[in-house]
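Late entry, evening session. Most of the bench is empty. Finally got around to the prediction I had been postponing all week. Sequence below, unchanged from the version circulated by S.P.
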Amino acid sequence: MAKRKAKKGIGPLLILLIIILLGIFLFSGYKLASTMMEYRKSEAEYDDLRNLTEEGEKGDILTAEAIAAGKFACPISVDFDALKEINDEVIGWIYIKDVDISYPIVKGADNDYYLHRTFRKTYNFAGSIFADYENASDFSDPNTILYGHNMKNDSMFGRLDELVEKEQDVEEPYFWILVPGADYCYEMFDMQRVDPFDEIYTLFHGTDETFVQYAEKCAAESSVELPVPQFSTDSRIITLSTCTNDSKARFVVQGVLAGVVRHSGNGTQSVSGGQDTSGGQDTLDGQDTLDGQNAAGQTEDSSAESDSSADEYSEFVTKNE
Protein backbone atom coordinates (compact mmCIF):
# COMPACT_ATOMS: atom_id res chain seq x y z
CA MET A 1 0.00 0.00 0.00
CA ALA A 2 1.44 3.37 -1.08
CA LYS A 3 2.36 5.80 1.65
CA ARG A 4 0.75 9.24 1.65
CA LYS A 5 3.08 12.15 1.19
CA ALA A 6 3.39 14.21 4.32
CA LYS A 7 1.98 17.73 3.98
CA LYS A 8 4.62 20.37 4.05
CA GLY A 9 4.26 22.89 6.86
CA ILE A 10 5.10 26.56 6.76
CA GLY A 11 8.78 26.84 6.06
CA PRO A 12 11.16 28.87 8.25
CA LEU A 13 11.75 31.44 5.49
CA LEU A 14 8.03 32.12 5.17
CA ILE A 15 7.72 32.47 8.94
CA LEU A 16 10.63 34.93 8.92
CA LEU A 17 9.00 36.93 6.13
CA ILE A 18 5.71 37.08 8.02
CA ILE A 19 7.53 38.28 11.15
CA ILE A 20 9.35 40.97 9.16
CA LEU A 21 6.15 42.20 7.50
CA LEU A 22 4.33 42.21 10.83
CA GLY A 23 7.20 44.18 12.36
CA ILE A 24 7.05 46.73 9.54
CA PHE A 25 3.29 47.04 9.98
CA LEU A 26 3.56 47.56 13.73
CA PHE A 27 6.42 50.05 13.38
CA SER A 28 4.50 52.02 10.75
CA GLY A 29 1.48 52.07 13.02
CA TYR A 30 3.63 53.28 15.90
CA LYS A 31 5.17 56.05 13.78
CA LEU A 32 1.74 57.16 12.55
CA ALA A 33 0.37 57.21 16.08
CA SER A 34 3.43 59.11 17.30
CA THR A 35 3.05 61.66 14.51
CA MET A 36 -0.63 62.17 15.25
CA MET A 37 0.16 62.60 18.93
CA GLU A 38 2.84 65.19 18.06
CA TYR A 39 0.29 67.05 15.92
CA ARG A 40 -2.27 67.06 18.74
CA LYS A 41 0.25 68.25 21.33
CA SER A 42 1.38 71.09 19.08
CA GLU A 43 -2.18 72.10 18.21
CA ALA A 44 -3.20 72.05 21.88
CA GLU A 45 -0.26 74.25 22.87
CA TYR A 46 -0.86 76.87 20.22
CA ASP A 47 -4.62 76.83 20.78
CA ASP A 48 -3.89 77.56 24.42
CA LEU A 49 -1.58 80.44 23.46
CA ARG A 50 -4.31 81.94 21.29
CA ASN A 51 -6.27 82.44 24.49
CA LEU A 52 -3.80 85.27 25.07
CA THR A 53 -5.17 87.06 21.99
CA GLU A 54 -8.43 88.91 21.68
CA GLU A 55 -10.45 89.58 18.57
CA GLY A 56 -11.58 93.12 17.97
CA GLU A 57 -14.70 94.35 16.30
CA LYS A 58 -15.10 93.09 12.76
CA GLY A 59 -14.41 96.02 10.46
CA ASP A 60 -14.51 96.58 6.74
CA ILE A 61 -12.23 94.70 4.37
CA LEU A 62 -8.73 96.18 4.55
CA THR A 63 -7.84 98.18 1.45
CA ALA A 64 -5.00 100.42 0.29
CA GLU A 65 -7.40 103.35 0.44
CA ALA A 66 -8.23 102.64 4.09
CA ILE A 67 -4.53 102.45 4.97
CA ALA A 68 -3.77 105.69 3.13
CA ALA A 69 -6.61 107.38 5.02
CA GLY A 70 -5.42 105.99 8.34
CA LYS A 71 -8.73 104.17 8.86
CA PHE A 72 -7.63 100.66 9.71
CA ALA A 73 -6.96 98.45 12.71
CA CYS A 74 -5.55 95.01 13.39
CA PRO A 75 -8.31 92.41 13.89
CA ILE A 76 -6.64 91.01 17.03
CA SER A 77 -4.68 92.16 20.07
CA VAL A 78 -2.06 90.17 22.00
CA ASP A 79 -1.09 90.01 25.67
CA PHE A 80 2.69 90.19 25.27
CA ASP A 81 3.32 90.40 29.00
CA ALA A 82 1.74 86.97 29.44
CA LEU A 83 3.63 85.59 26.44
CA LYS A 84 6.93 86.85 27.77
CA GLU A 85 6.32 85.05 31.07
CA ILE A 86 6.13 81.82 29.09
CA ASN A 87 9.04 82.52 26.73
CA ASP A 88 11.17 85.65 26.92
CA GLU A 89 12.41 85.07 23.35
CA VAL A 90 9.05 86.08 21.89
CA ILE A 91 9.42 89.02 19.50
CA GLY A 92 5.97 89.28 17.94
CA TRP A 93 2.82 87.63 16.65
CA ILE A 94 1.88 86.91 13.02
CA TYR A 95 -1.71 87.04 11.78
CA ILE A 96 -2.89 86.24 8.24
CA LYS A 97 -6.66 86.43 7.97
CA ASP A 98 -7.27 84.66 4.65
CA VAL A 99 -5.46 81.45 5.62
CA ASP A 100 -6.14 81.50 9.36
CA ILE A 101 -2.50 81.75 10.43
CA SER A 102 -2.09 83.11 13.95
CA TYR A 103 1.07 82.29 15.93
CA PRO A 104 3.66 83.84 18.22
CA ILE A 105 7.06 84.61 16.70
CA VAL A 106 10.31 83.76 18.45
CA LYS A 107 13.99 84.29 17.69
CA GLY A 108 16.73 82.01 18.96
CA ALA A 109 20.51 82.10 18.97
CA ASP A 110 20.53 80.11 15.70
CA ASN A 111 18.15 78.75 13.08
CA ASP A 112 18.18 75.28 14.62
CA TYR A 113 16.76 75.59 18.13
CA TYR A 114 13.13 76.43 17.26
CA LEU A 115 13.05 74.25 14.16
CA HIS A 116 11.60 71.41 16.24
CA ARG A 117 10.80 73.15 19.52
CA THR A 118 7.49 74.80 20.30
CA PHE A 119 6.94 78.18 21.88
CA ARG A 120 7.16 76.50 25.31
CA LYS A 121 10.52 75.03 24.25
CA THR A 122 9.28 71.43 24.24
CA TYR A 123 10.47 69.11 21.47
CA ASN A 124 7.88 68.75 18.72
CA PHE A 125 8.38 68.33 14.99
CA ALA A 126 6.03 71.26 14.29
CA GLY A 127 8.47 73.65 15.94
CA SER A 128 7.73 77.38 16.03
CA ILE A 129 7.41 80.34 13.72
CA PHE A 130 10.82 81.92 14.13
CA ALA A 131 12.83 84.83 12.76
CA ASP A 132 16.25 84.39 11.25
CA TYR A 133 18.73 84.65 14.08
CA GLU A 134 20.70 87.31 12.19
CA ASN A 135 17.71 89.62 11.94
CA ALA A 136 16.98 92.42 14.39
CA SER A 137 14.35 91.52 16.97
CA ASP A 138 12.25 94.60 16.27
CA PHE A 139 11.57 93.97 12.54
CA SER A 140 13.53 97.09 11.62
CA ASP A 141 15.79 95.27 9.13
CA PRO A 142 15.19 95.87 5.41
CA ASN A 143 14.35 92.17 4.99
CA THR A 144 13.24 90.09 7.97
CA ILE A 145 12.83 86.36 7.29
CA LEU A 146 10.31 84.23 9.18
CA TYR A 147 10.44 80.43 8.90
CA GLY A 148 7.68 77.93 9.61
CA HIS A 149 7.03 74.29 8.78
CA ASN A 150 4.53 73.24 6.11
CA MET A 151 2.68 70.73 8.27
CA LYS A 152 0.35 68.17 6.73
CA ASN A 153 -2.37 69.04 9.24
CA ASP A 154 -2.28 72.63 7.93
CA SER A 155 -0.76 74.02 11.13
CA MET A 156 2.14 76.50 11.26
CA PHE A 157 2.72 77.66 7.64
CA GLY A 158 0.84 74.63 6.28
CA ARG A 159 -1.78 76.84 4.63
CA LEU A 160 0.55 79.52 3.33
CA ASP A 161 0.54 78.17 -0.22
CA GLU A 162 -3.26 78.39 -0.26
CA LEU A 163 -2.75 82.08 -1.00
CA VAL A 164 -1.62 81.04 -4.48
CA GLU A 165 -4.59 78.69 -4.90
CA LYS A 166 -6.99 81.41 -3.78
CA GLU A 167 -5.32 84.05 -5.95
CA GLN A 168 -8.29 86.20 -7.00
CA ASP A 169 -10.27 85.11 -3.93
CA VAL A 170 -7.80 86.54 -1.41
CA GLU A 171 -10.01 88.97 0.47
CA GLU A 172 -7.19 90.95 2.00
CA PRO A 173 -3.69 90.77 0.44
CA TYR A 174 -2.21 91.86 3.76
CA PHE A 175 -0.76 90.25 6.86
CA TRP A 176 0.00 91.60 10.31
CA ILE A 177 3.00 91.47 12.61
CA LEU A 178 2.06 92.54 16.13
CA VAL A 179 4.70 93.73 18.61
CA PRO A 180 4.42 95.41 22.01
CA GLY A 181 3.03 98.87 21.39
CA ALA A 182 2.39 98.58 17.65
CA ASP A 183 0.74 96.52 14.91
CA TYR A 184 2.52 96.42 11.55
CA CYS A 185 0.47 95.84 8.41
CA TYR A 186 2.27 94.37 5.38
CA GLU A 187 1.02 94.37 1.80
CA MET A 188 1.78 91.16 -0.08
CA PHE A 189 3.69 91.73 -3.30
CA ASP A 190 5.35 88.38 -4.02
CA MET A 191 4.43 84.68 -3.88
CA GLN A 192 6.69 82.11 -5.51
CA ARG A 193 8.64 78.87 -5.25
CA VAL A 194 12.37 79.36 -4.94
CA ASP A 195 15.58 77.43 -4.47
CA PRO A 196 16.55 77.03 -0.78
CA PHE A 197 19.61 79.19 -1.44
CA ASP A 198 17.88 81.77 -3.63
CA GLU A 199 18.89 85.42 -3.36
CA ILE A 200 15.42 86.09 -1.99
CA TYR A 201 16.92 85.10 1.38
CA THR A 202 19.38 87.99 1.25
CA LEU A 203 19.76 89.94 4.49
CA PHE A 204 20.68 93.61 4.25
CA HIS A 205 22.72 95.65 6.72
CA GLY A 206 21.54 99.08 5.75
CA THR A 207 20.01 99.92 2.37
CA ASP A 208 20.93 101.49 -0.95
CA GLU A 209 19.69 101.09 -4.50
CA THR A 210 20.78 97.43 -4.42
CA PHE A 211 18.00 96.76 -1.92
CA VAL A 212 15.43 98.60 -4.05
CA GLN A 213 16.48 96.57 -7.10
CA TYR A 214 16.21 93.38 -5.02
CA ALA A 215 12.64 94.23 -3.96
CA GLU A 216 11.58 95.15 -7.50
CA LYS A 217 13.05 91.90 -8.84
CA CYS A 218 11.18 89.83 -6.24
CA ALA A 219 7.91 91.55 -7.12
CA ALA A 220 8.47 91.00 -10.84
CA GLU A 221 9.07 87.27 -10.31
CA SER A 222 5.90 86.66 -8.28
CA SER A 223 3.86 83.72 -9.57
CA VAL A 224 0.69 85.59 -8.57
CA GLU A 225 -0.15 88.96 -10.06
CA LEU A 226 -0.14 91.45 -7.20
CA PRO A 227 0.07 95.24 -7.05
CA VAL A 228 3.71 96.36 -7.13
CA PRO A 229 4.49 98.87 -4.36
CA GLN A 230 6.74 101.87 -4.83
CA PHE A 231 9.88 100.59 -3.12
CA SER A 232 12.49 102.87 -1.58
CA THR A 233 15.52 102.54 0.67
CA ASP A 234 13.12 103.08 3.58
CA SER A 235 10.94 100.08 2.67
CA ARG A 236 10.76 97.24 5.18
CA ILE A 237 10.04 93.72 3.94
CA ILE A 238 8.95 90.52 5.67
CA THR A 239 9.74 87.23 3.89
CA LEU A 240 7.66 84.23 5.01
CA SER A 241 9.34 80.93 4.09
CA THR A 242 8.16 77.34 4.28
CA CYS A 243 9.12 73.99 2.77
CA THR A 244 7.30 72.17 -0.04
CA ASN A 245 6.94 68.57 -1.20
CA ASP A 246 10.11 69.16 -3.22
CA SER A 247 13.28 69.14 -1.12
CA LYS A 248 14.87 71.50 -3.63
CA ALA A 249 12.19 74.16 -3.37
CA ARG A 250 10.73 76.54 -0.80
CA PHE A 251 7.56 78.60 -0.96
CA VAL A 252 7.80 82.25 0.03
CA VAL A 253 5.38 85.11 0.53
CA GLN A 254 6.75 88.62 0.82
CA GLY A 255 5.07 91.73 2.12
CA VAL A 256 6.18 95.34 2.45
CA LEU A 257 5.25 97.49 5.41
CA ALA A 258 2.19 99.51 4.41
CA GLY A 259 0.84 100.90 7.66
CA VAL A 260 1.31 101.03 11.41
CA VAL A 261 -1.17 101.12 14.26
CA ARG A 262 0.44 102.44 17.41
CA HIS A 263 -0.88 101.93 20.92
CA SER A 264 -0.49 104.15 23.95
CA GLY A 265 -2.06 104.56 27.35
CA ASN A 266 -4.26 107.29 25.89
CA GLY A 267 -5.75 105.11 23.17
CA THR A 268 -4.91 103.88 19.69
CA GLN A 269 -3.58 105.96 16.81
CA SER A 270 -3.42 104.79 13.21
CA VAL A 271 -0.51 105.92 11.07
CA SER A 272 -0.30 105.40 7.31
CA GLY A 273 2.83 105.31 5.21
CA GLY A 274 4.33 102.42 7.13
CA GLN A 275 8.05 102.89 6.61
CA ASP A 276 9.07 103.56 10.21
CA THR A 277 9.34 100.72 12.72
CA SER A 278 11.43 102.63 15.20
CA GLY A 279 8.91 104.45 17.33
CA GLY A 280 6.17 102.02 18.25
CA GLN A 281 7.73 99.44 20.50
CA ASP A 282 10.65 98.21 22.52
CA THR A 283 12.15 94.85 21.75
CA LEU A 284 11.26 92.27 24.34
CA ASP A 285 14.89 91.40 25.00
CA GLY A 286 15.70 95.04 25.64
CA GLN A 287 18.09 95.32 22.67
CA ASP A 288 17.29 98.15 20.30
CA THR A 289 18.53 97.56 16.78
CA LEU A 290 17.16 100.62 15.08
CA ASP A 291 18.63 102.75 12.30
CA GLY A 292 21.10 100.05 11.24
CA GLN A 293 22.68 99.73 14.67
CA ASN A 294 23.51 96.51 16.41
CA ALA A 295 22.90 95.89 20.12
CA ALA A 296 26.22 97.48 20.98
CA GLY A 297 25.24 100.67 19.18
CA GLN A 298 27.64 100.18 16.28
CA THR A 299 26.38 100.99 12.80
CA GLU A 300 26.44 98.10 10.36
CA ASP A 301 27.82 98.46 6.84
CA SER A 302 25.35 100.64 4.96
CA SER A 303 25.78 98.72 1.74
CA ALA A 304 23.49 95.83 0.98
CA GLU A 305 25.25 92.50 1.24
CA SER A 306 24.14 88.96 0.57
CA ASP A 307 23.87 86.64 3.55
CA SER A 308 23.41 82.88 3.53
CA SER A 309 20.57 83.27 6.02
CA ALA A 310 18.62 80.27 4.76
CA ASP A 311 21.59 77.89 4.63
CA GLU A 312 21.32 76.58 8.17
CA TYR A 313 17.55 76.26 7.93
CA SER A 314 17.78 74.43 4.61
CA GLU A 315 20.16 71.86 6.02
CA PHE A 316 17.50 70.79 8.50
CA VAL A 317 14.42 70.99 6.29
CA THR A 318 14.55 68.72 3.28
CA LYS A 319 10.99 67.49 2.91
CA ASN A 320 7.37 68.38 3.30
CA GLU A 321 6.20 67.54 6.82
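Two things to note before I forget:
The first strand starts at residue 53 and ends at 55.
The two ends are 68 Å apart (CA to CA).
Will write this up properly tomorrow.
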